[in-house]
Amino acid sequence: MKLYTRTGDKGQTSIKGGRVSKDDVRIEAYGTIDELNAFVGQTAAVLGRSGKLDDLAAELIGIQQELFDCGSDLAFAKEPSVYKVGPEPAARLEERIDVLITEAPEITRFILPGGSEEASLLHVCRTVCRRAERRVVTLAAEHEINGEAAKYINRLSDYFFAAARAANARLSVPDVEYVRSAEVFRKPKSK
After folding, report:
1. Local structure of residue 95 (DSSP, 8 states)
2. How far apart are CA 121 and CA 46, in angstroms?
3. What's the rounded Cα separation, in Å, for the pair 114 and 105?
4. Measured in Å, how far apart are the chain's first and last C-alpha atoms?
5. For the CA atoms of the chain, what is the radius of gyration?
6. What is the model's pTM?
7. What residue range is the signal peptide (predicted)?
């Protein structure tokens, strides 16, 4: 198999159902998801080294599979017969977020991306995920897309935030507060 095809030399690329410009909104959306997937792979490799974050590293490998599914669903130029992403992956992320947030101390102020190397990489994933979400929103304004894929990408950035905070807590590294932040997160009132 040859790695190069020369079919894109003039700025066009193939998608499911046709050819489009390489800077088409559809390519931007699933291309940014592909970029996120690469960062997730790097992060999984680093998280797997500590021994304290093996569960998160394993989850990231599963997330890579789901990101590929999202990209596949967004690559259709015409109505697909079957989407790969349903409601289950986003629901599973919500369950994990609810568990992970209990591992870190409560915050009242904004925090800076950082702390440990592991948390920093998870924050990079979070910010690239937010960019991917913006690209998906742009795509959805112009074309019909799988709404479950969009929902998953939205939920995934929250997962990365919760995972970054849990990673810092497990590694006994405090989150770094934004020093000029007002108290923006309030503790729930007891009933």
Report:
1. H
2. 9
3. 15
4. 65
5. 19
6. 0.89
7. none
User: CB 161: neighbour CB atoms within 10 A?
Assistant: 22
Q: Can you give the pLDDT at residue 75?
A: 86
Asked if the model's pLDDT at residue 144 lies above 80, the reply is yes
Element (H, E) at 15: strand 12-15
Give the span between the Cα atoms of 108 and 163, in whole angstroms: 18
CB 109 within 8 A of CB 181: yes
The one-letter amino acid code at 98 reads D
Structural domains for the chain: 15-177 (1.20.1200.10)
**Which residues does 158 contact at the CB level (< 8 Å), separation at least 6?**
93, 97
- Joined tokens for residue 157: 């950035």
The phi, psi pair for 188, rounded to 5°, reads: -65, 140
